[in-house]
Amino acid sequence: MESYNSTNISEFKNVWVFCEQRGGKLMPTTLELISEGRKLADELGVDLCGLLLGKDVEGLCKELGGHGANKIYLCDSPLLETYTTDAYTKVIVDCVEEYKPEIMVFGASNIGRDLAPRCAARLHTGLCADCTHLDVDMPIYKDFLKESSTLAPEKIDGLGTALVLGEKHDVSRDLKMTRPAFGGHLMATIICPRFRPAMATVRPGVMKLSAYDEAKAVAVSVERPAFALSDSDLKTRVREVVKATRELVDLTGADVVVSVGRGIGKDVEKGIALAEELASVLGGVVGGSRAAIDSGWLPADHQVGQTGKTVHPKMYFALGISGAIQHKAGMQDSENIIAVNKNSAAPIFEIADYGICGDLFKVVPLLIESFKEEQQSK
Amino acid sequence: MKAIVCVKQVPDTSGKVAVNPDGTLDRASMLTIVNPDDMNAVEAALKLKDETGCKVVVVTMGPPPAEGMLRQLMAMGADEGVLVSAREFGGSDTFATSQILAAALNKMGLDPDDVVFCGRQAIDGDTAQVGPQIAEKLGMPQISYVADIHKEGSVIVCKRMLEDGYMMVETQTPCLLTCIKELNQPRYMSILGIKDCYTKPVTVYDYNALKDDPLIDPTTIGLKGSPTNILTSFTPPLKGVGMMLEGTGKSTTDQLVGMLAAKHVI
Ligand SMILES: Cc1cc2nc3c(=O)[nH]c(=O)nc-3n(C[C@H](O)[C@H](O)[C@H](O)COP(=O)(O)OP(=O)(O)OC[C@H]3O[C@@H](n4cnc5c(N)ncnc54)[C@H](O)[C@@H]3O)c2cc1C
Ligand SMILES: Nc1ncnc2c1ncn2[C@@H]1O[C@H](COP(=O)(O)O)[C@@H](O)[C@H]1O
After folding, report:
1. Is A370 in contact with B253 (Cβ distance < 8 A)?
2. pLDDT-derived band of residue A354, with 50, 70 and 90 as boundaries?
3. What is the rounded distance in angstroms from the CA atom of residue B56 to the CA atom of residue B84?
4. DSSP string, A6-35
5. Is A154 exposed, middle or buried (0-12, 13-18, 19+ CB in 10 A)?
6. H-helix or E-strand containing B107?
7. pLDDT given at position B240
8. From the CA of A171, how many Å to the nearest CA of chain B?
9. Of A353, B6, B190, B231, which has the fewest beta carbons less than 10 angstroms from its beta carbon?
10. How far from A320 is each of A109, A262, A275, A276, CA to CA, in Å?
11. pLDDT range class, residue A252, cuts 50, 70, 90
12. Quick check: bond before B64 cis, omega within 30?
């Protein structure tokens, strides 16, 4: 094999998605990435390929095809049944060196964020973490900036090159990877102009899932790359995988999230019960601020924010939450934010679509009543 | 045996964050703190010291004032500090940072029973990449998202968190672990520790100290050695202030529900 060099940009082609599965089931983020990857591949005029590792997982290829993958590279081995950094890195690096994709994306799951940096380091390329927006096409990227930034329109229109090692570099074919930084205070668009593949991990729940198409599912082609993997490659060993006994809350996928904060402190039991009732009336789930989680009022998987989950439901209720920047970072893209807080100066009101200044213990029972009446009137 | 901890000094994003007109962070006007996850990494190393009597070395790459942070960690119980600091190292992305920190660990000398601790992620960039990339460059196994650690001879067993549960993972030293806040409760500085911290050694590694390591090359460190570049940085637009409803009675909640119904949200 000729030697692999990540700077030979022109040798690299196609968009790849790492198709994370656990226990033989695709992670929801994988299908979001396939949908997004399709868009990028179309902008570049290339194929979208999935890289699927596991044991006896061929059955998943169709689903990936149905959401837009042209081809699946399937690596099947008992050593890939359970994720280990060593085995997955080795196989992925082998495949990338052989087929040379120009873009490769991973879900920013606890596994994706373990695996992607290790692969990027071994391949000598750049990696952008936890992206919330990806673009190739310049006009589309500029439209995104016009909508989502405070940059002056003239400045946006003037974008097109970057200074790379002192030279002007045309960014029109580069992957533009946008992500929040400094706890959401700033956004940054990162490029990887000199190396391939350009790699990104993408935050779960932010990319839109495309519709499943049976015709595409049937048409997907499957290739089994040769890879060398033996027991001695594994320096870490998984003794057991333990599923949480409690069913974990699906905040990212929920249409309605009712979150509580320190404001329920006066009567925690009552506060949680009110939130649960409101959530159940609206078919939603209960979340919380870090203060609520740190106080032990809700389990950790309920946390919304920079160090918790990012949500964008149709309705987000912030009950007794002040609206610290780290909390906002996880919920400010919700379609309708409804805040109840007894302090009229609470920062949550700066981003709320609807605010009620008052005691949540008084307001929420009335709110539940109003929603119930509305439902009955239909 | 050493417990080596990579610690980063970061701007405190919980207070007001100052942004320059050009969209970059006004670091100068912000307070700095020890990156929160790194405090858990330091505590894990100190626990290992309590159990085994090993030495704890704290390492940071940053500007010279970061030495103050190293002293603070020594007052908690760390034995030595290493400050990696040079103009050539500035502007590094995670690839280049891990390249430099890996070279610093090589310089320190890694023993077969050493354990390297990192935080899961730093709150300025939130990338969570530097730990795994240091491990890769040192050819070491890694376990990330660590919420519990046991040592069974030369075997390290960790509880590694997943979104939907956890894995029990074992590996041999030397290895690198990235720590999350569930792992432990960081201890406070002790009076004796504060008294001692200025007599403990801090070694500075500048460019010359590391330049003979094959990892250190103009094409792999600093701004020039960083595969990623920032194309633009910007602040998100402030969402137009929404509507404050009058009152807290039933008519107010009815009004809200009415508006949501009119918008077909419900
Ligand atoms: C590195 C880092 C990461 C972080 N990550 C996150 C994160 O992911 N998610 C997160 O949420 N936070 C996070 N935080 C913490 C964040 O800074 C805030 O401390 C936290 O969000 C505050 O939670 P809170 O709003 O519930 O509590 P508080 O700030 O104490 O607010 C309580 C609010 O309740 C109101 N209130 C009190 N009683 C009532 C009542 N009876 N009726 C109505 N209102 C009432 C008060 O007016 C107040 O506004 C992070 C912090 C750091 C440093
Ligand atoms: N400049 C640095 N000096 C020392 N350690 C660092 C530095 N940058 C990152 N780290 C370590 O790597 C972890 C992850 O950082 P990051 O990849 O920036 O999110 C941190 O929690 C630290 O343990």
Report:
1. yes
2. very high
3. 17
4. TT-GGG---EEEEE-EETTEE-HHHHHHHH
5. exposed
6. helix B94-108
7. 67
8. 9
9. B190
10. 29, 6, 11, 15
11. confident
12. no
Give A190's contacts in chain B (Cβ within 8 Å): 228-231
Write out the CATH class of domain B2-220.
alpha beta
| Shortest Cα distance, chain A CAs vs residue B74, angstroms | 27
C-alpha dihedral (A8, B129, B221, B101), degrees to nearest 10:
-140
Pocket of ligand 1 (CB under 6 A): A 261-263, 266, 289-292, 303-308, 320-322, 324, 326-327, 330, 340-343, 346, 359-361; B 14, 36, 123
Could you tell me if A286 and A326 are in contact, meaning their C-beta atoms sit under 8 angstroms apart?
Answer: no
At B71, list the tokens.
């002293």
pLDDT in tens, chain B (266 residues): 999 999 999 988 766 667 776 666 677 778 899 999 999 999 999 999 999 999 999 999 999 999 999 999 999 999 999 999 999 999 999 999 999 999 999 999 999 999 999 999 998 888 999 999 999 999 999 999 999 999 998 899 999 999 889 999 999 999 999 999 999 999 999 999 999 999 999 999 999 999 999 999 999 999 999 999 999 999 887 766 789 999 999 999 999 999 999 999 98
A306 lies within 8 A of chain B by CB: yes
CA A247 to chain centre: 21
Distance, CA of A303 to CA of A288 (rounded, Å): 5
CB B17 within 8 A of CB A181: no
* Identity of the residue in B131, B170, B241 whose CB atom sits nearest the CB atom of A237: B170
| 3 state SS of B182 | helix
DSSP code per residue over A246-312:
SPPP--TT-SEEEEE-GGGGGGHHHHHHHHHHHHHHHT-EEEE-HHHHHTTSS-GGGBBSTTSB---
B10 phi, psi to nearest 5 deg: -130, 155
A111, B145 contact by CB (below 8 A): no
Under a CB-based contact definition with an 8 Å cutoff, are residues A361 and A270 in contact? Answer: yes
For residue B72, the SS3 value is helix
What does the domain layout of chain B look like in residue ranges? 2-220
* Residue A1: per-residue pLDDT: 47
Q: Which CATH number fits domain A256-376: 3.40.190.10, 3.30.70.270, 3.30.479.30, 3.40.50.1220?
A: 3.40.50.1220
Residues 6+ apart with CB under 8 A from A368: A274, A277, A278, A281
Distance of alpha carbon A357 from alpha carbon A124, whole angstroms = 53
Mutate to test the pocket of ligand 1, among B9, B14, B33 (most ligand atoms within 8 A of CB): B14
pTM of this structure: 0.90
Query: Mind giving me the DSSP string for A60-115?
Result: GHHHHHHTT-SEEEEEE-GGGSS--HHHHHHHHHHHHHHH--SEEEEE-STTHHHH
User: What residues does CATH 3.40.50.620 cover in chain A?
Assistant: 9-136+173-233
Smallest Cβ–Cβ distance between B169 and the set A124, A171, A237 belongs to A237
Axis crossing angle, helix A268-282 with helix A360-376, rounded to the nearest 10: 20
Asked if A222 and A150 count as a contact pair (C-beta separation under 8 A), the reply is: no
Q: Which class is domain A9-136+173-233?
A: alpha beta
Give residue A324 CA to ligand 1 midpoint distance, Å. 6
